[in-house]
Amino acid sequence: MTRQLDEQIVGRFPVGKRLRVLDVGMGQGTQALRLARAGHQVTGLEQDAKMVAVARESLAGEPEGIRERMRIIEGDGRDTGVHFLPGSFDVVLCHGVLMYVEEPDPLLAGLARMLAHGGLLSLLVRNGDALAIRPGLSGDWSGALAAFDTTAYLPHSRKDSNGGTPIRLGLDVRADRLKDLTSTLAGIGAPLHAWYGVRVFTDTAADGTEVPADVETLLAVEEKAGRTDPYRGVAALLHLCGVRG
């Protein structure tokens, strides 16, 4: 997903431009810190106090220049209008958040308002069109059959929304379908520009599975599959990139 995001940023903004980035639901700050290290001005918004503490601890260990480029706010992503003016950001990230929001449309509309003209909205969501894949591959036939007719699911585990340590939540959460999100993005003025699959082949790996020695090859395979039909359509997650018109 990081490679996909960088591809979109490089293709949309002048090289060397310091972007204003908002990371909604930043988790422990993995992507936010990465972008701050790259020279961008980053604001992280997170409602989980424990995650905020982890992010602040990580930030405290960074050089002064990076600390100055990043600020962390404890708050709900649905309240962006309380914290920021419309058009305040060039890039807005919302990764691994929509699955925990029962009614995502108001949140998405608020995120779109935060974008300047031509700004990039990056969403990472659970793929509602592929919920039968995991139970089917694991031999859970009743679970696979039920998954065809729902967008609700019980997650195996959750990672910090930007790829950190797995967290078991035990919550019933929801997935999103590509067709529905495409319609929503068009309706809020940030139509879909590009989309990718994430975790096409690796989603069924058990927690604690050892990282293979040829991890770069694994990443290359996942990256290729994530941009290639029909593989991307059955990925566990979808990475959607909308552009503010």
From TrEMBL:
Identify the taxonomic lineage of the organism of origin: Bacteria, Bacillati, Actinomycetota, Actinomycetes, Kitasatosporales
- Listed GO MF terms: S-adenosylmethionine-dependent methyltransferase activity
Which biological process terms from the Gene Ontology are attached to this UniProt entry?
A: methylation
Keywords, ordered alphabetically: Methyltransferase, S-adenosyl-L-methionine, Transferase
| InterPro entries in the record | Methyltransf_11, SAM-dependent_MTases_sf
Q: What is this protein called?
A: Methyltransferase
Sorted alphabetically, which Pfam families does this protein's record hold? Answer: Methyltransf_11 (PF08241)
Q: Which residues form a coiled coil?
A: none
Keyword Transferase applies: yes
Q: Which domain of life is it from?
A: Bacteria
Q: Where is the Methyltransferase type domain?
A: 22-122
